[in-house]
């Protein structure tokens, strides 16, 4: 029994790291410019298909594709900002609604495009370096892909933290604090916003790449992860990286334990219960600044 | 150095400037005075590129119209805005260093730091503090310091004395005189008529968006009409 609980705790935490990283990308963009990216799940989905396609074409392992996919997603994020978001932000009225519909429309478009390009069936990578391998940790057996994914997500968080300490990170923070005042000191906020989208998308790309080593890929795979990401961001506090990490781990843990205590199909009940509880008692989230 | 010809601007739906002509020569301190709502702040915002305008605005021969605000700042035109607009949750040091962010290729990027600390020693004592924890006067010093970090050739100050203890107002105005001594041209908007005219070479009097008088600061200070226009008596 204890082994079973321990197993659930560890695998829940590992999954939680993925949730946390997906949420970090969402939180970064939201914190920077108050735009909720409703296409975030589809960005995750796209990065998974990118791994699948590159793996199929080049026979290169997903782990080696990590920097490539991150770079592609960075470019994609910048493009989404320049082509869609910047225009949506420049409208004269109803800016909030326009932002929502633009990213929502992008989500539907991307899902349709993936369906068209890759078909609707579930696919997975079964011949990766880590596929079907496990590692024993005392009484707990852990699938190697999940362990690797958890480690990479932690490294990505360390990277985000390091970035926030750089001069660019300070400029990002300044833009988040007062987007008009940065122009007074010669900072091009459009460039900062574009970079923010690039980093947000690259972050989700890292999560997607690691996820693709053990999770099924389909055009709608992003939906579930997006919902969890919104909950994670709200739970951790909008714009807080540390909050996203803590909330992601908490959600992974609660989900895994709920599946054990009730039954796997009800695994999300616990997560939403915790969410409602935190929302009622502490509306700004665990680490919220607002 | 700076030339405005026939500049009109609307701010929040109101005509705030109507056919304004202003010229500032290199090395001068020029004051813009006038009652509340005369268009003083709009004038500075217009130069900084924050307000859509008609007319011509040139800085050292280059047109500023239709330039993005950050481009204007990079040309050497720094605005210390009303309300200061610091980055409240960043440290004093971060606020200052960010002033040099856009000059990444300048080998002496952080050179102006010494000047800022010399002008405002209080800032040096509070480097690690968040900007929001400073007093009003210290925040104004930081805002001016941040602007100096951009190495401006024209420094524009919008109501630097607003919400500040009288003792610190003197310090800040003394600093403005020092800054001018370093060859930086200053355009200052101020409610406090006497103080502003005391440090200025020339002055413009604005009334409901028009220049109603301009000339040497001493002459403007002595003019009875100005006192009436400005003080409303």
From TrEMBL, chain A:
<keyword id="KW-1133">Transmembrane helix</keyword>
<keyword id="KW-0029">Amino-acid transport</keyword>
<dbReference type="InterPro" id="IPR001851">
    <property type="entry name" value="ABC_transp_permease"/>
</dbReference>
<feature type="transmembrane region" description="Helical">
    <location>
        <begin position="97"/>
        <end position="120"/>
    </location>
</feature>
<feature type="transmembrane region" description="Helical">
    <location>
        <begin position="192"/>
        <end position="216"/>
    </location>
</feature>
<feature type="transmembrane region" description="Helical">
    <location>
        <begin position="6"/>
        <end position="32"/>
    </location>
</feature>
<dbReference type="GO" id="GO:0006865">
    <property type="term" value="P:amino acid transport"/>
</dbReference>
<dbReference type="InterPro" id="IPR052157">
    <property type="entry name" value="BCAA_transport_permease"/>
</dbReference>
<keyword id="KW-0813">Transport</keyword>
<dbReference type="GO" id="GO:0022857">
    <property type="term" value="F:transmembrane transporter activity"/>
</dbReference>
<keyword id="KW-0812">Transmembrane</keyword>
<feature type="transmembrane region" description="Helical">
    <location>
        <begin position="228"/>
        <end position="254"/>
    </location>
</feature>
<keyword id="KW-1003">Cell membrane</keyword>
<keyword id="KW-0472">Membrane</keyword>
<feature type="transmembrane region" description="Helical">
    <location>
        <begin position="64"/>
        <end position="85"/>
    </location>
</feature>
<feature type="transmembrane region" description="Helical">
    <location>
        <begin position="39"/>
        <end position="58"/>
    </location>
</feature>
<dbReference type="Pfam" id="PF02653">
    <property type="entry name" value="BPD_transp_2"/>
</dbReference>
<protein>
    <submittedName>
        <fullName>Branched-chain amino acid ABC transporter permease</fullName>
    </submittedName>
</protein>
<feature type="transmembrane region" description="Helical">
    <location>
        <begin position="140"/>
        <end position="163"/>
    </location>
</feature>
<dbReference type="GO" id="GO:0005886">
    <property type="term" value="C:plasma membrane"/>
</dbReference>
<comment type="similarity">
    <text>Belongs to the binding-protein-dependent transport system permease family. LivHM subfamily.</text>
</comment>
UniProtKB/TrEMBL annotation, chain B:
<dbReference type="GO" id="GO:0015807">
    <property type="term" value="P:L-amino acid transport"/>
</dbReference>
<dbReference type="InterPro" id="IPR027417">
    <property type="entry name" value="P-loop_NTPase"/>
</dbReference>
<keyword id="KW-0813">Transport</keyword>
<keyword id="KW-0029">Amino-acid transport</keyword>
<dbReference type="InterPro" id="IPR003593">
    <property type="entry name" value="AAA+_ATPase"/>
</dbReference>
<feature type="domain" description="ABC transporter">
    <location>
        <begin position="2"/>
        <end position="233"/>
    </location>
</feature>
<dbReference type="GO" id="GO:0015658">
    <property type="term" value="F:branched-chain amino acid transmembrane transporter activity"/>
</dbReference>
<dbReference type="Pfam" id="PF00005">
    <property type="entry name" value="ABC_tran"/>
</dbReference>
<dbReference type="GO" id="GO:0016887">
    <property type="term" value="F:ATP hydrolysis activity"/>
</dbReference>
<dbReference type="InterPro" id="IPR003439">
    <property type="entry name" value="ABC_transporter-like_ATP-bd"/>
</dbReference>
<protein>
    <submittedName>
        <fullName>ABC transporter ATP-binding protein</fullName>
    </submittedName>
</protein>
<keyword id="KW-0547">Nucleotide-binding</keyword>
<dbReference type="InterPro" id="IPR052156">
    <property type="entry name" value="BCAA_Transport_ATP-bd_LivF"/>
</dbReference>
<keyword id="KW-0067">ATP-binding</keyword>
<comment type="similarity">
    <text>Belongs to the ABC transporter superfamily.</text>
</comment>
<dbReference type="InterPro" id="IPR017871">
    <property type="entry name" value="ABC_transporter-like_CS"/>
</dbReference>
<dbReference type="GO" id="GO:0005524">
    <property type="term" value="F:ATP binding"/>
</dbReference>
